[in-house]
Design goal:
Elements lengths: L1 H57 E4 L2 E7 L18 E5 L18 E3 L20 E3 L20 E3 L21 E3 L10 H4 L6 E3 L20 E3 L20 E3 L20 E3 L19 H33 L9 H15 L4
Helix pairs in contact: 3-4
Pfam family, one: LRR_8
Subcellular location: Cytoplasm, Myofibril, Sarcomere, M line
Keywords: Cytoplasm, Leucine-rich repeat, Muscle protein, Repeat
Length: 357
């Protein structure tokens, strides 16, 4: 009996000692964790201060505007500490390798200009729609694949540049809600047509869709009543709609490097056109302009601007002359339409007069 009591006491002592050690170990571990957390908070606060100090160096004031300007540095993401600068009115971040537009962009209600060109951005977040004061959104030379419909909520947007995003091939219908948009650059993408939402923009004055895959222009293109400049070079256009002749505000039209075979004869009367370029198209007729006398440098510059317009007029005149000659040859009365339609009549007449096989 005595041996059992001793054994029992020994077990109790060992158990108590073990529990004490375990408790102390837990307390030590908790203390270490608290110390690490404290160090982490200190480090985090210190890092925040460093980031804030670095960002503060990038904030400048010019002409009354508070601007965040970062160029040729490595900023793949923007720290949330940026929200400490709600007064920012412009972001100018070029060639910094930025991959995402932060969703906290919606915190910057004073933003007027968001210039993030020449980065690696793949997405425009839907939070962009919260920036109702935004006037310019410049995201050219990135990797954007789609545009959110929320962009249509940026009611004061005047300038939108999405050039050279390569895989971009459509826009949401909500873009037509941008009643103040006057400048749109969609060049060097994959569009096969001018989106209806673009044709419906009431204030659009400048449009660049060069370097896409446009195969035709919308029949109602003349709805863009205020458009004065249209760049359509390096596409796959084979013909122009007759209604292009009713674009009364159009003064600059670039159609070089397409697949055009003819110029609508009614374009001859587009006296508002100051500059037009049909170079490098497989046009049906070859025409030459009369040699001009040697002029001053300024006059030569004017001539270069006039060359395309003069070429267009001479081409239309030459085409009409040849069509009328062919009509007379086949004794066909010319319809009251442009020579493209007249050519169709000629072809029908030739087909009727050809001997059957």
């Amino acid at each position: 009996m005595t041996g059992v009591a001793v054994c029992s006491g020994s077990v109790s002592s060992i158990k108590s000692l073990w529990e004490t050690r375990i408790k102390k170990t837990k307390q030590d571990l908790q203390k270490q964790q608290e110390q690490r957390a404290g160090v982490g908070r200190v480090r985090h606060n210190w890092e925040d201060r460093i980031i804030l100090a670095k960002l503060k160096e990038k904030v400048v004031t010019e002409e009354g505007r508070v601007i965040l300007r970062i160029e040729k540095e490595e900023w793949k993401t923007l720290p949330r500490a940026l929200v400490h600068f709600p007064q920012l009115m412009e972001w100018q971040l070029h060639r910094v390798g930025l991959q995402t537009i932060p969703r906290f962009i919606s915190s910057f209600e004073n933003l007027l200009v968001l210039d993030l060109s020449r980065n690696a951005i793949t997405e425009i977040p839907k939070e962009i729609g919260k920036l109702t004061r935004l006037r310019e959104l410049l995201v050219s030379y990135n990797r954007v694949q789609s545009v959110p419909e929320e962009l249509g909520c940026c009611e004061n947007l005047e300038k939108l540049e999405l050039a050279m995003n390569r895989d971009l091939d459509e826009l949401p219908s909500e873009i037509s809600n941008l009643k103040k948009l006057c400048h749109l650059d969609l060049s060097m993408n994959q569009f096969t047509e001018i989106p209806e939402s673009v044709v419906s923009l009431p204030a659009l004055e400048w449009l660049d869709m060069g370097g896409n895959r446009l195969q035709s222009l919308p029949h109602d293109i003349h709805r863009m009543e205020k458009l004065h400049t249209m760049w359509l070079q390096r596409n796959e256009l084979e013909f122009l709609p007759d209604n292009i002749c009713y674009m009364r505000s159009l003064d600059t039209l670039v159609l070089s490097n397409n697949k055009l075979h003819d110029i609508p004869s009614m374009m001859e009367d587009m006296n508002n056109l100051r500059f037009v370029n049909f170079r490098d198209n497989p046009l049906t007729y070859e025409v030459e302009l009369p040699a001009a006398p040697k002029k001053s440098e300024d006059e030569e510059e004017d001539d270069r601007e006039m060359f395309g317009r003069d070429f267009m007029r001479v081409y239309c005149q030459e085409a009409r002359k040849r069509v009328n000659a062919m009509l007379n040859m086949h004794r066909v009365n010319p319809p009251e339409s442009n020579y493209t339609s007249e050519l169709n009549v000629i072809l029908e007449a030739v087909a009727e007069s050809a001997p059957s096989l």
